[in-house]
Amino acid sequence: MSLQIVPAFSIPMGFAKLEDCTALNAELRSLFLARTAQPEYANPDIYTHRNPALFESNFRLFEWPQPVIQKLRTFCLQHLYGLIRELNGYDTATLSRLHSSEQAWFHVTKKGGYFGPHNHPLHSWSGVYCVSHDGDDPESDSGKLTFINPNYAGSMFIDMATAKMQRPYSMGNIMLRLKPGDLVLFPSWLLHEVLPYEGDDVRITVAFNVCFRMTGIQPQGGAIG
Which tens digits make up the pLDDT trace of 94-123? Predict the structure, then answer.
């Protein structure tokens, strides 16, 4: 009998690219930089560790009426619904009964800014969209979105029989340098952080959390928005 190797536990993530995003990102950049000077747009309930070089908005971004915001919201949710379709095997009729409730916000990070390890309680899926990331060494770890490997127990003992395992079995973290137009989707429970941005410009991203209810299905467990 031949040996069969299977990924017994896996974490799904989704990746997409918004094509021809230059004009949209320029409009977002201008809008967000202007809003950083207006205190009413700042997040009043900061709980994740960060420093003053990072501005975080309140969580109502996807409620803004500007067409550029609504275009971005549509792009993000279309790809998230597509991911959910694939992972759950939903047909179009079933997917149409799935209704989302969202939080969304933006970050403007200046030199030295970072965001500590965290996840997003009371939501099932989260995402990050990159508006801009320039002014630093692209070969460095500056501003990398880093997902912390949840299989931490695997590092209890490491020898050369396990040290070189490749993904999805590797015990290393996933470190991403997002480019403008990049979208990454991930389960909200997955711990992640943003490493210090060392550039002379700004790093701008949009983040969002989503939870769902399905028409005709009574939810079980935690709160549903």
Answer: 999 999 999 999 999 999 999 999 999 999
